[in-house]
């Protein structure tokens, strides 16, 4: 057993919750052409955003995304500065024409959806459609949501990284006039979805599709053209769409990284394969938790456990902080990093995005079993 | 002469107006440690923004900037998403507490300052202090500016990249209660300045200090704490300052690139050296223009010619488009790229930021002389 416990990964197993692991092949390609991009003699970092070379990069990124996600023609794809937090303002500023004159619906299932709602309150009357929860361990049934029928849209966060809660279905639009706006920052491109279910999809790219500093917006074209008058240009979908995401200098290098990452996803087999792998990774960790007789504890309702962020305590429901500290330390010794839980909930969090091979989740689950066998009281 | 005309640069001379050339040594370092940063076993792109390693990167960037610019202690340094365009909204949203309740002063000396004023009009009453100009070829004397004494601030753009106009002095604050807000996006870190002259300095990093997707804000601390209620969190200096630029995931890789770039500036000798080089580069080009007997034409008042962007026509004041096309083509053959003038003004634009060695400006000026000798009618 002592021998077995010394097993060290042959590479760092990066479980950071975001910015997160990037596939080695993607990093390798970026490194190879960092100084000289193709036959240009310059770096992508030094290129004009209006050059034919950069145009090819951003248009290829869009083309790949449309192909991978099967995005219908009546949806626009925008590459924008910032991440989810910027989009929390963008959504109300673009979907509500009148300052403080519109109602909007928010389903609160964790820290991120609550942050989104708070930001929207600067501009709209926010209706929180879900009951106030003490802990974010389940998703209240959609049938019980108190949706204001006059709301301009219905917003929800597909995956909550802190509590580890994820919708395992697509919430349908309440009516023809109330589109669904969804934050997919933390589970973007991790399984096939029906884009046409949504009015707006937002996603920072730093978890499943690239690096920090870029967000992707997929918006149905009939929702454009009516921004609030106070919407800053940088957040204005209508202007960004009109200028093909090149109104101002975009975050060029993050766009380039996403372009390579998207090619990698396509080459791996697309969203079916990403979905299969995420299921396998999640099963490895949650099965270990469930078969631990309470040594590992995850309080999330199994019907909404996150495939991206497995959050658990060690040594029982409340967690044994000493044991958790030891676990994190022993992970580190085995080159498993980034497993410390978010400060709001404590414990352990294993984040497993597109770039993590299933074998690495297996390595972690094997270690969890060994750790349990040695430390169970 | 034909022999001389065939002289080809041994590398691409990148005159892009932004994103722009990055020093080779900076790119080389980024390439070397792209996959594995120091002894972490992961890339900077994969690091948590809350990790000690990234904290060291962003704090070192700040420390270097404070040292290079001699930033007084009562100024805060923020690393923010977006670029100048985002900051055009941020400035009024942070310096004016009341929506549509404040007056602000803008000096209009080109396309960028006009864009900044237009954005501010969403939130404030904008007073354009300069007379309406037909062409942006001079900077109206500050004594003639019609500044509204109740204005919350006085804004100007230090360098206008399209017309090639640059202030060669620092505009002093109008009064103790009206700070100067300055956009230094296109001449940031290109010469020593007295930071204490300004209330707010904004600069996108993609020209003189890094790559696209990041802006730096230097703000006097007494100006914090009074944002407009409608200010999106992502643009809120007070929140960003409170969280040391880590309220949300920042553009980590662009921050890392700026950190290396700043080290390069320091190693080269700091802003005195950057200033000397920019003067030398500019002199090489403008002297060639001035000694061309009208073959090259730059209409900007010599007291405000941009050191960063030399804008000129070929074949007389109105420009001979055929000759300009030929010039651009022959530049390309000599590996001089990015010299086509902005579509709003036409002609030629030679952009020369921190990363361009003086020898490259000499190479361009030599070519300009040879081109003139062969093509003068």
Automatic annotation (TrEMBL), chains A, B:
Pathway: Amino-acid biosynthesis; L-serine biosynthesis; L-serine from 3-phospho-D-glycerate: step 2/3. Residues 14-361 form the Aminotransferase class V domain. Keywords: Amino-acid biosynthesis, Aminotransferase, Pyridoxal phosphate, Serine biosynthesis, Transferase. GO terms for biological process: L-serine biosynthetic process. It catalyses: 4-(phosphooxy)-L-threonine + 2-oxoglutarate = (R)-3-hydroxy-2-oxo-4-phosphooxybutanoate + L-glutamate; O-phospho-L-serine + 2-oxoglutarate = 3-phosphooxypyruvate + L-glutamate. Its EC number is 2.6.1.52. Gene3D superfamilies: Aspartate Aminotransferase, domain 1, Type I PLP-dependent aspartate aminotransferase-like (Major domain). GO terms for molecular function: O-phospho-L-serine:2-oxoglutarate aminotransferase activity; pyridoxal phosphate binding. InterPro entries: Aminotrans_V_dom, Aminotrans_V_PyrdxlP_BS, Pser_aminoTfrase, PyrdxlP-dep_Trfase, PyrdxlP-dep_Trfase_major, PyrdxlP-dep_Trfase_small. PROSITE patterns: AA_TRANSFER_CLASS_5 (PS00595). It comes from the Eukaryota. GO terms for cellular component: cytoplasm. Its cofactor is pyridoxal 5'-phosphate. HAMAP family: SerC_aminotrans_5. Belongs to the class-V pyridoxal-phosphate-dependent aminotransferase family. SerC subfamily. This is Phosphoserine aminotransferase. It comes from Dermatophagoides farinae.
């Amino acid at each position: 057993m002592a021998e077995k416990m010394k097993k060290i990964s042959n590479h760092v197993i990066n479980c950071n919750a975001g910015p997160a692991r990037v596939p080695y092949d993607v990093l390798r390609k970026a490194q190879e052409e960092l100084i000289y991009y193709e036959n240009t003699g310059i770096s992508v970092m030094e290129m004009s955003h209006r050059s034919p070379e950069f145009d090819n990069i951003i248009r290829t990124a869009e083309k790949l995304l449309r192909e991978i996600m099967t995005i219908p023609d009546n949806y626009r794809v925008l590459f924008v500065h910032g991440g989810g937090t910027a989009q929390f303002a963008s959504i109300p500023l673009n979907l509500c024409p009148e300052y403080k004159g519109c109602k909007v619906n928010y389903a609160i299932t964790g820290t991120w959806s609550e942050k989104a709602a708070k930001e929207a309150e600067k501009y709209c009357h926010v209706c929180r459609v879900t009951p106030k929860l003490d802990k974010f361990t389940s998703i209240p049934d959609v049938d019980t949501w108190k949706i204001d029928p006059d709301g301009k849209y219905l917003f929800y966060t597909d995956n909550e990284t802190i509590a580890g809660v994820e919708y395992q279905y697509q919430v349908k639009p309440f009516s023809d006039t109330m589109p669904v706006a969804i934050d997919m920052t933390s589970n973007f491109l991790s399984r096939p979805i029906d884009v046409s279910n949504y009015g707006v999809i937002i996603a920072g790219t730093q978890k499943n599709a690239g690096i920090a500093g870029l967000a992707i917006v997929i918006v149905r074209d009939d929702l454009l053209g009516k921004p609030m008058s106070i919407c800053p240009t940088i957040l204005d979908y209508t202007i960004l769409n009109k200028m093909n995401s090149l109104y101002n200098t975009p975050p060029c290098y993050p766009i380039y990284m996403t372009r390579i990452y998207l090619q990698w996803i396509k080459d791996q087999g697309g969203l079916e394969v990403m979905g299969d792998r995420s299921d396998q990774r999640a099963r490895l960790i949650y099965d270990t938790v469930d078969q631990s007789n309470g040594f590992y504890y995850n309080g999330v309702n199994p019907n909404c456990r996150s495939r991206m962020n497995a959050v658990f305590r060690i040594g029982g429901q409340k967690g044994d902080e000493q044991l958790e500290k030891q676990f994190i330390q022993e992970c580190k010794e085995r080159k498993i990093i980034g497993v410390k839980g978010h400060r709001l909930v404590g414990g352990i969090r294993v984040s497993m995005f597109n770039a993590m091979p299933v074998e690495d989740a297996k390595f972690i689950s094997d270690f969890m079993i060994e750790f349990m066998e040695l430390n169970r009281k």
